[in-house]
Records
---
Amino acid sequence: MQNTAYGGWPNCIRLTNDTLELIVTTDVGPRIIRMGFAGKDNMFKEYKDMMGMTGGDEWRIYGGHRLWHSPEVRPRTYEPDNSPVKAVIDGSTLKVVQPTEKGTGIQKELEITLSAQGAKARILHRLRNNGPWPVELAAWCLSVMDAGGMAIVPHPVKATPDRLLPNWSLTLWPYTDMNDQRVSWGTRYIRLRQMPGTEPIKIGLSNNEGWGAYLNKGQMFVKKFSYIEGATYPDFGCSMEVYTNAEMLELETVGPLTTLEPGASVEHAEIWQLFDKVKVPASEADIERDIVPLVKQAG
């Protein structure tokens, strides 16, 4: 780990093992603004007109990876993260802690651990209730991916007696068109492409397979998470959501809904792995042959 300037912010922290490079902002956040192979492109989207900005009461997307709390509602979800965060280094782990949100009483934390070698990292997300009353919420972890790629999300696999009962749920937002040509619904996988000049679309599902991927620039970003069977998830049961517009694509995981008592916290972990020289699949057979084996390699 080393202090570095990045994107106009003078006080960032760079984590690298000579294979993978992460850059974490401390002038705003908590936020991981860069994730990519050392010396190669950022897989995350950067909003150039917002880079280096601080302060103010307006929420800014900035880009990169952030932590929210679900369900989405204004103004609660859009509390600005424009102020400095506290950074603590503990061995190979960097912990960044946001001041308690004035409007919600919730405090956001990220614990980032880079593997000693290889393009792998563990991101632990934590929400703490520093307010005076219980709050129902879910940890919501959003990776804002750069334009031009394709997300892959597996259908859930659950056995039901005699196949008489439904085994998973799909959630659509009011602006989602099921005829949208960016989506391939598939037999086993949903593929969603990011394209310029397009309207927003969002889908969510009860992803008990515990992974999602984004392919771009000849590389593949995989995030894995734990799905808790029997838990209640927000947005009609979504543990994974994918949103895209004309500029970017968000690959999002969501934890179970929980009621946080004052002083209590909830955690949600993601395992990230980045793979190089991966072709965008043209079919589900390609996914099974080329993508799934790499996903299984991710921790």
Note: DSSP finds two helices and 21 strands in the chain.
---
Amino acid sequence: MSAIKNNTVLIKEYAAASGFDYCGVAKAVKLDDDARRLESWLNKRYNGSMQYMENNFELRVDPSKLVPGAKSVITLLINYFPATKQNTDAPKISKYA
């Protein structure tokens, strides 16, 4: 198993053990298609009162500009409306976060 694949497996295992519902790892590259979709979404004012969504457009669509030298992006997800309540001993995470 290559070192990169081994690291990805370890990260995903750690995320699952930490209670995350999903963990994805992707290359830190400019997101051209997503940039066009985000620009269209913003132009339609779908962001409503969330004016901050218009800030730092280039950083939002190019992770290597947000974190110079980044090679990968790790995405972690937790279902914000689970069937059961959070463990009271776990760190508190708001439902919308």
Note: The chain has two domains: 1-25+72-97, 29-70.
---
Amino acid sequence: MDPDDLGLQYTYDPIPNIRALRKRHTSGYGIVPERFGGSANTEFEVLTGMTRSFLPDGSLPYRQYVRHPIPSLPQTLEDFGYTTIAIQTGPKYYYDYERVYGLLGFDRVVWLSELPGVELAARGRWPSDKAVVEAIIQASQEVRPFFAFAFPSSTHSPYNTGTYKDSDLEVLDPALSDSTGEVKEYINALRVADQAIGTLIGYFRRQPDPTIIAIFGDHLPPLSENALHTFYKNRSGMSKTEQARMIHRVPLLVWANFDLPREEKELSINALPSYLLEKMGLSPSGFLAVSNAVRRKVPVLARYVQRADGKILARDSLRDEERAVVEDYRLLQYDLLLGKQYSLRDSASGWKPSDGASSASNQLRTP
């Protein structure tokens, strides 16, 4: 999360690189499906364009529902000639990564934690951010065009190792009794991640190939109630819908080494794949075309919705046209994820509306 959202003061900004990049490039917020955990559900949304909000609370699609190949961003880019690579700091068994990544269409996976001699983060539990950046750069040098999905873990909980107890990046807010140093550890871990992002951007800024890099959080950090006291206090007067927005909101940055008009965006993370394809000059097809149609009418689709005009409201308050497009999206996701994949049977033309589909379906872009 943005450390400023904690409502605390620090000796200096933990994320100066990200802050500067957000001012010059497309930025805003992603709305993620979980609050303080469940990283794989954010992965699920950003790699498939599907939404966890259509599934039961507490569900984990990677473990429960992804049982066969499904349309995905990696598969779509592979169809356009890209090599697709996942770079994962977690173990293969975590969230069934090894099984699921194959079903999502990745050409290969770099399991950083299994590489001999890989540098660990200062907190000692996961491969370092430097190792993640080096893996991305190496992948880019092997084959082009390429798509890499990289998952670092250096800012992951717990925040009680005391690794940064002697750091000069301190919490100054007198209202917080940070007796265990958890907030200090979190913001110092953010600082290290921010430095790695600066290295990553610096490398690709010098490369001739047009490159887009999207950076976003997977969920808010599971800090203690004491550490989050000001965060909650500052939101106590908000409506329930607005409170839900704030607790699922993570920073989003879309950087490019070519001229890409800057925008301020707030998107559900499941809308990010179609948005990125558009910025790459590629036309979303099949399921991602449907996701793209939803994004244009309802940029945020979660337990609440945000319409294209920016208005935040309950899902049952959508206008008829918006509701029809969302319902088509829901039915198609059910077919692809939980049903018999009828919509994939005509592989030559992709998905087309059935006879019983609403008239709004005819507006959806198909291949």
Note: DSSP finds twelve helices and ten strands in the chain.
